[in-house]
Design a protein that fits this description.
By secondary structure, the chain is α/β, with parallel strands linked by helices. The longest helix has 29 residues, at about 5-30. It has 3 domains: about 25-100, Methylated DNA-protein cysteine methyltransferase domain (Double Stranded RNA Binding Domain), CATH 3.30.160.70; about 115-195, Arc Repressor Mutant, subunit A, CATH 1.10.10; about 205-258, DNA Methylphosphotriester Repair Domain. It starts with a helix and ends in a 9-residue tail after the last strand. It is built from 9 helices and 10 strands. A hairpin with a 2-residue loop joins strand 2 (about 50-55) and strand 3 (about 55-60). The protein has helices at about 5-30, 65-75, 90-100, 115-125, 135-140, 150-155, 185-190, 195-205, 240-245, and strands spanning about 35-40, 50-55, 55-60, 80-85, 135, 170, 210-215, 220, 235, 250. The chain binds a DNA duplex (13 and 13 nucleotides) through helix 5, helix 6 and strand 6.
DNA sequence: TGGGTGACGACGC
DNA sequence: AGCGTCGCCACCC
């Protein structure tokens, strides 16, 4: 083997590994119309970069510029995202969702997630605007009542924050808990959605974990968006107490284990 | 492969 | 009240 051929082989390996192969792969995917494309879109927390592919939205992230977003995307997903050229049909749905509208038909690409993570994220997606649920509640709902901590990790991994509203999952004492964009942003988002978290933490500090509305005969978690905070509101320390008053568990916030 | 690592929660001060 | 500790469980080298 000559020194020259050794140099060639080394160069080939370097190029292939570091640049040529990923570019080539990206070009092929693009030809097939399968590449991830991205665009900056306005949201409640300012512009965010949103990426999508034929399966659905693959990523939502804040970034200082498109280069930073591309770097993050490549590191996270081990593939490239290309700037969008035209306006894809999915973008209009994303705009509506980021404007606060519920868009349940919006496709989201969760192929990169583990089955457990996908379960967590699908459940989180069911939490409507104006509602919030504890991490422990989410763990219980997906039949993994002891995986509370793992639920937190799965939400921390949410590839599409805001679209899957992981900011609506809070601690059991109704303090906000952590968030990709910071816990103060999380609190601000919840406040903007009409939730008075400070008032609720106060309520819970005094031992009132459930709220009931005798008029419609059911009791709720204090962060259930269906609760009307008026003079009819009754406070309960426990599920048993609410049931003793003849109230049924709310079918939206499901305040007790099935 | 097994031990380290978290967007948690209960409990003890 | 707010902190430290420990158990928990999925995931990652």
């Amino acid at each position: 083997m000559t020194e020259r051929s050794n140099r060639c082989i080394e160069e080939y390996r370097t190029q292939t590994r570091r640049t040529a192969a990923p570019d080539f792969a990206a070009k092929c995917l693009d030809r097939l119309g399968l590449a991830d494309r991205y665009l900056a879109i306005e949201s409640a927390i300012g512009p965010v970069y949103v990426a999508w592919n034929p399966v659905g939205v693959s990523a939502v992230r804040q970034a200082s510029d498109s280069e930073a977003f591309e770097r993050w995307f490549r590191k996270r997903f081990a593939r490239r995202a290309l700037p969008a050229t035209g306006e894809a049909p999915i973008v209009e749905s994303v705009r509506r969702a980021l404007a606060g509208e519920s868009v349940p038909e919006l496709a989201i690409d969760l192929r990169d997630c583990t089955p457990f993570e996908a379960d967590v994220l699908r459940k989180a997606r069911e939490i409507g605007r104006g509602h919030a649920r504890p991490y422990a509640w989410l763990a219980r709902e997906i039949n993994r009542p002891r995986a509370v901590r793992a639920v937190g990790s799965a939400l921390a991994n949410n590839p599409v924050p805001l679209l899957i509203p992981c900011h609506r999952v809070v601690r059991s004492d109704y303090s906000s808990g952590e968030y990709v964009f910071g816990s103060d942003v999380k609190r601000k988002l919840l406040e903007r959605e009409g939730l008075d978290l400070p008032a609720i933490t106060d309520l819970v500090r005094h031992g009132y974990h459930y709220l009931g509305q005798p008029d419609d005969g059911c009791f709720c978690l204090p962060t259930c968006g269906n609760v009307i905070h008026d003079e009819h509101l009754v406070r309960f320390h426990s599920v048993d107490e609410a049931i003793a008053q003849g109230l049924e568990p709310c079918t939206t916030c499901r305040p007790m284990a099935a």
